[in-house]
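In response to the reviewer comment on reproducibility (Comment 2.3), we provide here a single inverse folding case reported in full, input and output, so that an independent group could reproduce the run without further information from us. The structure tokens appear first.
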């Protein structure tokens, strides 16, 4: 099944994407918002990809490819638990501020609703991540709580 939005094509991550994912995750403006903020190494990612990811049946991560250029624009993830899905994303620096996080998230939330039969989505966002907080609001997520510096949001699908 072809998964694509207006400007993005989605495919499941592959081992050949490792360096791209590490590069995107290793940007200080990205990893500072993680629960465990540190610059990820290629070895850490490959260990996760080869030893942990294949055994997590609830999680699927996608490379978002810019349809116009064929370049990898970011990484999106869905973590499904019953009829609930968590969405996350990382957009590569050259593709930021183009609305791709919104477009990709909106597409994958609709996919979660119609194909995965999910009825609720949630997101965890660091309180200082203003861009993601604005995106959650634009997507219709509502705040449900917080723990330390992480804010929790949910949305009915």
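Designed residues, in position order:
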């Amino acid at each position: 099944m072809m998964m694509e939005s207006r400007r993005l094509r989605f495919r499941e991550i592959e081992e050949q994407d490792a360096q791209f994912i590490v590069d995107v995750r290793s940007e200080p403006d990205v990893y500072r918002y993680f629960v465990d903020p540190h610059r990820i190494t290629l070895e850490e990612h490959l260990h996760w990809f080869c030893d942990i990811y294949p055994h997590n049946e609830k999680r699927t991560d996608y490379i978002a490819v810019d349809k116009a250029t064929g370049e990898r624009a970011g990484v999106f993830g869905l973590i499904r638990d019953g009829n609930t899905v968590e969405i996350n994303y990382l957009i590569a620096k050259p593709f930021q501020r183009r609305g791709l996080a919104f477009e990709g998230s909106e597409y994958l939330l609709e996919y979660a609703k119609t194909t995965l039969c999910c009825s609720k989505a949630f997101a965890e966002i660091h309180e200082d991540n203003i861009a993601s907080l604005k995106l959650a609001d634009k997507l219709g997520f509502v705040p449900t709580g917080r723990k330390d510096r992480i804010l929790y949001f949910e949305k009915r699908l």
